[in-house]
Amino acid sequence: MQTRKLFSAVSVFTLALGLAACGGDSTDEADTSTSETNGAAGSEERSITLMVGVKGDPFYVSMECGAREAAEAAGATLEVQGPDKFDATLQNPMLDAVASTKPDALLVAPNDVKASVPPLKRIQDGGTKVVLVDTTVDDDTIGVSRIATDNNLGGQKAAEALDELGVTGKVLVISTDPGVSSVDARVDGFGTKAEELGFTQVSDTQYSHNTASTAAQVVSAALAKDPDLEGVFATNLFTAQGVATGVKQAGKSGKVKIVGFDAGPDQIKQLEAGDVQALVAQKPYDIGLQGVEQALAALDGESVTAEIQTESLVVTQDNMDDPEVSKYIYKASC
């Protein structure tokens, strides 16, 4: 009887040890599986929103292409949004919607240095990593990184391009709207270099409100007032398109030299036709790609570069077919 009891106790003890061992192995496997699943999920669940300055602009399309490449390489999702017009009153409600969805990261080209601050602050305070691309805001606390063209230098290059085209006297600057950081810097850079080169600006900076038809009207009025106008600097894509149209309608294509900023498909056609003499091309693809890279670094707790300035180059009929230049012509689609 005692032997039977002893045998039973040993059997139960041995069985318990076996079950404990199996349970331990099972737990370890479960932990490993859970860890691996969480690691994969962490990568898959990373969501990035790109809020462009305006929908359909080849500059921002090219930026999207760069952002998509970087997001796909990292296994992150990318959603692209943007207003139909470069206008903070249209973009801000979209940013408010982003605040409610709380993506992991937001790449954004703010439409106004001041008006864009409140919604961006709400998004950032909600835990989303914000990267400013192309344009910025006055609040230095917003954005883990700011990536944009050296726009002041780009404006200087525009003045130098007019100089190389033989302009010596009266010039005009037509921009989009005041309060947009990128174009304001271009205007400042142009003004500094224009003074050094001895140009005379016929008026204060005029504004197209980012509309080609308005730019055409502005340059037509300027030519009526100053028929000896020699050169025009148009600070962005749509403005340059309108300036070329207005100068052509005035019968002064080629006589009034035009330097545009940006190198979209339509502008390249105007360059080929001789309606525009030079373009300052940015590198939006690089901006989009680096924007995603900086956002992911911030999410991983890695080192982030607070400010990145990308380069620009002058495109003319003489160099536009050079592969080192043509690769920076903007895309209509990815």
Anisotropy-based shape: elongated
CATH topology-level fold name of the largest domain: Rossmann fold
| Strand proportion | 15-25%
What's the total count of β strands? 13
What class would the helix/strand composition place it in? alpha/beta
CATH homologous group name of the largest domain: Response regulator
Which architecture of the largest domain does the CATH hierarchy give at level 2? Answer: 3-Layer(aba) Sandwich
Low-pLDDT residue intervals, each spanning 5 or more residues: 1-43
**Biggest β-sheet: count, sense, barrel?**
7 strands, mixed
Number of domains as seen in the coordinates: 2
Give a verbal description of the structure:
- By secondary structure, the chain is α/β, with parallel strands linked by helices.
- It has 2 domains: 46-148 and 283-310, Rossmann fold (3-Layer(aba) Sandwich); 151-281, Response regulator (Rossmann fold, 3-Layer(aba) Sandwich).
- 51% of the residues lie in helices and 16% in strands.
- The strands form 2 sheets. Strands 6, 7, 8, 9, 10, 11 and 13 form a 7-stranded mixed beta sheet that branches. Strands 2-1-3-4-5-12 form a 6-stranded parallel beta sheet, sandwiched between helices.
- Helix 8 links the parallel strand 9 (231-234) and strand 10.
- The longest helix is centred in the N-terminal third of the chain and has 43 residues, at 2-44.
- The N and C termini lie far apart (85 Å).
